[in-house]
Amino acid sequence: MQQLTPAGQQVVSDLSARYGVSTDAVTHMLISVLNGQGSMAQFSHPEFGGSGQWMRGGMTMVGDMFNYGLKNLVDNLCSEISNILGNQPGLLQTGSFQSQSQSSGGMSSGGMPMAPNSLFVPDPRSQWYPAELGMPNSSGSQNNVRYAYFANARRLAVDVGGDVAIYDTLNHQIGGFSQQQGSGGSITFTSQYGTVNLASLPMLSRNGQPVMPAPQNDGYNNPPAYQESPNYNPALTQNVGGGDTNAILSALEKLGDLKSKGILSDDEFAAKKADLLSRL
Description:
Elements: H1 6-19, H2 23-35, E1 40-45, E2 50-55, E3 60-61, H3 68-86, E4 98-99, E5 138-142, E6 145-150, E7 155-160, E8 163-168, E9 176-179, E10 187-191, E11 194-197, E12 203-206, E13 209-210, H4 235-238, H5 245-260, H6 266-277
Parallel strand pairs: 4-9
Antiparallel strand pairs: 1-2, 2-3, 5-6, 6-7, 7-8, 8-12, 9-10, 10-11, 12-13
């Protein structure tokens, strides 16, 4: 049974007063709508005519089938509860992995930071990602894989069969996930740069232990294990030899273009700029 916070108890009390039903009845319906992910509810409470069902934008059924006033009350109450839950981050499932053989789209995610939900006391057993990341902007699961995306922190947590990895999302604005058919299939995501394999992101930690980054490009013969930023071209520094002033100036100009377009962060730009200037 979900435990309500003081704020959640206040919401229940307000709904109880406005709809003329007990707080027990409202709490029962609140949990029912929550279990139905905000779009439906299967309930059984004497104040709602016994067993019944509500569907958002659909038919409402109550035990007293000809009591249209009760149907209207249930529909209005459930609709308002659905809206309240929809404004509580992390409560409703915001997406799930989609097999590539399916035609339905992936999840949608917002780009704004989200505060923890205020209605229910968090269950520590349900939080599998690091608490310091806060509440995810979106989450989902399929087979033995689940994910949580934290847009503001630029982090992605992925749990594969209990093996939890944290990734740096760089400057990707993630809009959906998919998994190849089968539990062992590769994971991809979509962003403003198209479809990207999860393995291309830098892994920061695994099961709480930091992961050492792969050796970075030294500008000569050692290409990086991953791109520091999507669409960043390692050739801007990789093939620029010391003393080639024209090539270095051209590379600096291209770096400036990438930074102005938001593809390179300030830190990435500064590091590459310093590397190029050191060769003059």
